[in-house]
UniProtKB/TrEMBL annotation:
Binding-site positions, L-histidine: 102-104, 132, 146, 150, 296, 300-301
Gene designation per UniProt: hisS
GO molecular function: ATP binding; histidine-tRNA ligase activity
Protein's GO biological process: histidyl-tRNA aminoacylation
Quaternary state and interactors: Homodimer.
HAMAP family from the UniProt entry: His_tRNA_synth (MF_00127)
Catalysis: reaction(s): tRNA(His) + L-histidine + ATP = L-histidyl-tRNA(His) + AMP + diphosphate + H(+)
The name this protein goes by in its record: Histidine--tRNA ligase
EC nos: 6.1.1.21
Ribonucleoprotein among keywords: no
Segments passing through the bilayer: none
Localization terms from the record: Cytoplasm
Similarity section: Belongs to the class-II aminoacyl-tRNA synthetase family.
Annotated Aminoacyl-transfer RNA synthetases class-II family profile domain residues: 1-400
Length: 458
RNA sequence: GUGGUUGUAGCUCAGCUGGUUAGAGCGCUGGAUUGUGGUUCCAGAGGUCGCCGGUUCGAACCCGGUCUUCCACCCCA
């Protein structure tokens, strides 16, 4: 019985046109990763579970795809554990491997394992798929690509500055105008939590704060209260909810708010340095704004936090993000290696470019010239001509069988071929070929002994 | 993981309170046109109505389950 074919939830097939467009984005991103001095690495699609588990919080652990052990794995579980039917506890006994959830943690593992071969600061880029057992939504898949650039082994803030320039360069090249790079600093958030006396609830505080533009001031306060943050503390943090004005105005306000927090002050200073340096360097097309409510991202960030928002009017979550993490390699035994990195969300950038119609024209043109087939003898001559064109790097093909011209032309039309070559009995007799321009219908005759004339006209 | 939503021809979608043989546009195939596509005209093919079960004399339509789509939450690229 034939079964109806299907693919798992949250995964996709890509058509030729989609692959070409995705490659276009990959190529731009990759090219600029390289011009900024990053080197490529790749890591396995699955890692040992202990490498990944516990690095992304409880929520993250739930979203990691676990790989079942091979063999009779259930038989190896001890009876007591089995009878408890506790999925979380039994997982580690039946699964030792898991699909990678992002590229940053595997990179940290890579740096630790290869520390003696690397020259620090080590700048690496990595473009590979990652998997999350999430519930799919628009722009949210269970298999998707991340394009990451990270620097480890340097705590210079110039790295942050360069990464912002890298974002700006890539989005400018993609013609994606009006992208906003949001910038915040974990130290500021920690400082605020300290100042208002909610140091232990930093994560809950930031997660709630992050929702400000979504659920509003009242919604944020409500959530903070429900997480156990006191009314007094929330009132103290109130200036945050209305932080407006220019970047420098906001920095000054933060300075005042954080005057009793050493860590918070440091965060403001870092932010100020990055902002001022970027201002003096200038940006090509992106906007850089401070957003103290920006808190998303993973728990391992310790300094700068980036998030890239699509141009206004496009409904899409963030199309990139990143930040500085001072001790990611520490969990694998390598201390005092600071890292900072950014990620491009390829799948979402694709959706945005598609929506705004920003892919180059004719990008998915897979064929420039199609030779029609008029029979055995004529077909052979056409194939010779096709071979010459191909040697000149022209995407050329010959229709494989002597079908009706109507059908051959229709095929050329559907494949969007700009030039069709007719080489029939008459042309063969006088060593010529006819080129039809499919846009305007004009036909020109060229000599078979001077194909260069046609090639030059392209 | 929680709540909701969607699924009918290759594609986009109609289909009345449950009632004979489930429709349209586009696309596809053939013809008008034996060497000229994208326009036009004519004809034709194509559907286990997501899947499984239930209610009913009778189910695309009602009910349950399941898969899928999209949305909100959680979280995130």
């Amino acid at each position: 019985m034939a079964q109806k074919p299907s693919i798992p939830k949250g995964t996709r097939d890509f058509t030729p046109s989609e692959v070409v467009k995705r490659n276009y984005i990959f190529d731009v991103v990759k090219r600029h990763f390289q011009t900024f001095g990053f080197q490529p690495i790749e890591t396995p699609s699955f890692e040992n579970s202990e490498t990944l588990m516990g690095k992304y919080g409880d929520e993250g652990d739930r979203l990691i795809f676990k790989i079942l052990n091979s063999g009779d794995f259930l038989n190896k579980v001890n009876d007591e554990l089995y009878s408890l039917k506790d999925s979380n506890k039994i997982t580690s006994s039946i699964s030792e491997k898991a699909l990678r959830y992002d590229l940053t943690v595997p990179f940290a593992r890579y740096v630790v394992m290869h520390q003696n071969e690397l020259d620090f600061p080590f700048k690496r880029y990595q473009i590979q798929p990652v998997w999350r057992a999430d519930r799919p939504q628009k722009g949210r898949f269970r298999e998707f690509y991340q394009c990451d650039a990270d620097v480890v082994g340097s705590d210079s803030l110039l790295q942050e500055v360069e990464l912002i320039q890298l974002y700006d360069t890539v989005f400018t090249e993609l013609k994606l105008d009006g992208v906003t790079i949001k910038l915040n600093n974990r130290k500021i958030l920690a400082g605020i939590a300290e100042v208002i006396g909610a140091k232990d609830l930093l994560i809950d505080f930031t997660v709630a704060l992050d929702k400000l533009d979504k659920i509003g001031e009242d919604g944020v306060k409500k959530e903070m209260l429900s997480k156990g943050i006191s009314e007094f503390a929330i009132e103290k943090a109130a200036p945050l909810f209305n932080l407006k004005g220019s970047n420098t105005d906001q920095l000054d306000a933060l300075d005042a708010l954080l005057e009793n927090s050493k860590e918070g002050k440091k965060g403001v200073d870092e932010l100020r340095f990055i902002m001022e340096t970027i201002v003096s360097l200038g940006m090509q097309s992106a906007k850089l704004v401070i957003d103290v409510t920006l808190a998303r991202g993973l728990n391992y960030y310790t300094g700068a936090i980036f998030e890239v928002a699509a141009p206004k009017g496009v409904s899409m979550g963030s199309i990139g993000g990143g930040g500085r993490y001072d001790d990611l390699t520490g969990i694998f035994g390598l201390k005092d290696v600071s890292g900072v990195g950014i990620s491009f969300g390829l799948d979402r950038i694709y959706l945005v470019l598609e929506e705004l119609n920003l892919f180059p024209e004719a990008i998915d043109r897979s064929l420039e010239v199609l030779c029609l087939n008029f029979g055995t003898k004529e077909g052979l001559a056409a194939l010779k001509l096709t071979t010459v064109l191909r040697k000149h790097g022209i995407k050329a093909d010959i229709y494989p069988s002597e079908a009706k011209l109507n059908k051959q032309f229709k095929y050329a039309n559907n494949r969007n071929v700009p030039y069709v070559i007719l080489l029939g009995e008459e042309e063969l007799n006088n060593s010529s070929f006819v080129v039809k321009n499919m846009q305007n219908g004009e036909q020109k005759t060229y000599s078979l002994s001077d194909t260069q004339q046609f090639i030059d006209s392209l």
